[in-house]
Automatic annotation (TrEMBL):
Membrane-spanning ranges: none
Protein's UniProt name: C40 family peptidase
Domain NlpC/P60 intervals: 40-162
Keyword tags: Hydrolase, Protease, Signal, Thiol protease
Organism phylogeny: Bacteria, Pseudomonadati, Bacteroidota, Sphingobacteriia, Sphingobacteriales
Length: 163
């Protein structure tokens, strides 16, 4: 644990295919292994940002390292990594994208879920090979897999923010 920020310096994932793997350091090599891509395919600024926030706990309405919610995390990521402003809520973000099929998704696209009914109530950022980074209510900032049954069941939409 980094005592300054209270977050983990490891790459945290609950993706089923990563079970048994130890990503005890946060390096581009570990991200490349987890995401099954070559290191040169990764945007270093994006993964540096993810490192800074990995393991930060969920807090509804939060936008600090003491706690952050899904849309707050995605907003800060987009501002820092892509220099773009997004709407504050996941539902509004969903209304501001050009939708894509999963097979068309690229690093930095947004993925949306509806855990509480019909409306979008969760957002994450697509990475590679069905993996995405988001804020889990139980585990904080973490990398998960769209194909894992829990996320596949509640997945609703994905796409690129309209500029």
């Amino acid at each position: 644990m980094n005592s300054n920020s209270g977050h983990s310096s490891a790459v945290l994932t609950d993706a089923s295919e990563a079970r048994g793997k130890n990503y005890s350091t946060s390096s581009l090599d570990n991200y490349a292994d987890l995401l099954q891509v070559k290191k040169k395919e990764l945007n270093p600024t994006l993964y540096s940002f993810i490192d800074e926030w990995m393991g930060i706990p969920h807090r509804m309405g939060g936008a600090t390292k003491r706690g952050v919610d899904c849309s707050g995390f995605v907003n800060m990521l987009y501002l820092k990594v892509y220099k773009e402003n997004l709407p504050r809520s996941s539902r509004d973000m969903d209304g501001a994208i050009k939708s894509k099929r999963n097979s068309q998704l690229k690093e930095g696209d947004l993925v949306f879920f509806s855990f509480g009914g019909r409306n979008v109530d969760h957002v994450g950022v697509y990475l590679h090979n069905n993996k995405f980074v988001h804020v889990s209510t139980k585990k904080g900032v973490i990398i998960s897999d769209l194909k894992d049954s829990w996320y596949a069941k509640y997945f609703t939409n994905a796409g690129t923010p309209k500029s």
